[in-house]
Request: fold
Amino acid sequence: MSETRNLDHLKVEQFGPCRFIGKSVYAPGQIWQIFDSFIFNSKWIFDALEVLTEYAVNGSHNFALKTWDKYNEQTKMMGYTVGRFMKADTPVPEGMDFFDFPAANVAKGLFRCLPTDDIGLMVMQAEKLVKNAVEQQAKYTVTTWNWIAEVYPVGYKENIITDADGKTFCGTYMSCEEK
Reply:
């Protein structure tokens, strides 16, 4: 994928209130090998969430939520929660973690992609492109210290669900606020 590729969808919009439900792992700093392994081996998490489809907010996406809820200067723990955004009143399955989010502005940047694309690379590039695009305009600033969500297609990595054109979406959501 070219470094100069543009996002196919970029929008800042009101999002929530909602609840993010999934399973979390914490590690000091950004240890991508742990996080990559976690998203690649997360089918069991999404299988558990499938029974809650009436509560789904984004049925065509799976997410990895990056948070700093346990971060401090000593531990530098970053959270990585694989799951989905659900309606605010969604019951939390036993053993799952959750984060409640109030209504807020969210920047959503997505690439239209094929299952054969390097989706992990595209997700990383989307984060940079969205942050730069939001910061360049005058209305919003990103608040990535709150959270960032990586967007993956349902079925990633072995059995990606696509639309009639054989494509799907990947990218990023990130919290932002009006300047």
